[in-house]
Amino acid sequence: MTVIKVLRCVFTEDMPAIKNKITTMHELTLCQSAFDIIEQQAQANNVKRVTGVWLEIGALSCIEESAVHFCFEIVCRGSVAEGCALHITTQPAQAWCWDCSQAITVSAHDAGCPHCQSHNLRVDSGDSMQIKQIEIE
To answer: Hey, which of 52, 64, 85, 124 has its CA 20 to 30 A from 114?
Structure first.
């Protein structure tokens, strides 16, 4: 078994997404982008089969894990990644409070600074989905 380390961002969201009936379309597009990267890596490394993929989803990414599992299985059908294990971890969001000059951890879009309760925050990380690792045979 070989492991390919990948640190490529699949998606970064600048504005909060509005959750509605098309949520799965959002995840389907993200999974297709992730699959494209996986396929490129597989071709570049002459891979016959992908056995595992590790994704990291930011706490503020508005990405539903269950929808990612569902969509990922669909986009991988008939490919070198069909049937591979999908491992998902959630990354806490990191932000900077402009009012009290503190680095903080944020768990929701409407969360305020735990030090001064300000909502004047700059999100530095935790609003994206990234492929962290691809396992191959």
So the answer is: 64
